[in-house]
Automatic annotation (TrEMBL):
<dbReference type="InterPro" id="IPR000182">
    <property type="entry name" value="GNAT_dom"/>
</dbReference>
<keyword id="KW-0687">Ribonucleoprotein</keyword>
<dbReference type="Pfam" id="PF13508">
    <property type="entry name" value="Acetyltransf_7"/>
</dbReference>
<feature type="domain" description="N-acetyltransferase">
    <location>
        <begin position="1"/>
        <end position="190"/>
    </location>
</feature>
<dbReference type="InterPro" id="IPR016181">
    <property type="entry name" value="Acyl_CoA_acyltransferase"/>
</dbReference>
<dbReference type="GO" id="GO:0005840">
    <property type="term" value="C:ribosome"/>
</dbReference>
<dbReference type="GO" id="GO:0016747">
    <property type="term" value="F:acyltransferase activity, transferring groups other than amino-acyl groups"/>
</dbReference>
<dbReference type="InterPro" id="IPR052523">
    <property type="entry name" value="Trichothecene_AcTrans"/>
</dbReference>
<keyword id="KW-0689">Ribosomal protein</keyword>
<protein>
    <submittedName>
        <fullName>Ribosomal protein S18 acetylase RimI-like enzyme</fullName>
    </submittedName>
</protein>
Length: 190
């Protein structure tokens, strides 16, 4: 896997936009109109920028998959981060941001106090799914988390993803009601 550089931002955003285009959880907080895809792209641009500073952004070796990892303990409030948040608020609208903040608050309540490796997004370009690219990247992320001494945490609502993550040693530690079941999963060190 490759650490994403600033020049890789559009590649990462393209992959995630395609991979999450039909994602129910994601789309439940994005206004559904002619600018929906533009908004999705802006959200992923935002997370690329944030996690490039307080986490990690990776691409698979073939640049067909990517992952966005956050280290919540390293998030810092700066003038620039406040400006980024304000821009996102105006782009998404108050209602979408309010829904997103509420969901994030529910999730944060069940996160550990200790440092962890928060897998915010992992996605494979839909044209290249079901070829093992995502599984290979996930395996590399798990190895990376071990090297950093941080357990991996993530959320999913998709049954097929639960099965995939369980194959890699993840367990469900909490189920949240977000208008649909959202499964909080973790992978401790084995």
């Amino acid at each position: 896997m490759l650490k994403a550089e600033p020049k890789d931002k559009s590649t990462v955003v393209d992959i995630l936009t395609k991979a999450f285009n039909e994602n129910r959880s994601f789309n439940s907080i994005i206004k559904q109109d002619k600018n929906r895809v533009k908004r999705i792209r802006k959200v992923f641009e935002y997370y690329f920028d944030v996690c490039s500073k307080s986490g990690l952004v990776y691409l698979s070796d073939d640049k067909k998959a990517c992952a966005v990892v956050s280290f919540p303990d390293q998030l810092k409030v700066t003038f620039k981060s406040i400006l980024m948040d304000i821009r996102l608020l105006f782009l998404l609208g108050f209602k979408s941001v309010r829904l997103g903040v509420r969901r994030e608050a529910k999730i944060n309540k069940v996160h550990p106090e200790s440092n962890f490796y928060y897998l915010l997004f992992i996605g494979v370009d839909p044209d290249f799914q079901y070829q093992g690219i995502g599984s290979k990247l996930l395996k590399e992320l798990i190895t990376d988390s071990k090297l950093l001494g941080r357990p991996v945490y993530l959320e999913t609502y998709l049954e097929k993803n639960i099965t995939l993550y369980q194959r890699f040693g993840f367990t469900i530690y909490k189920e949240l009601d977000c208008g649909f079941p959202l499964f909080c999963m973790k992978r401790e060190f084995i």
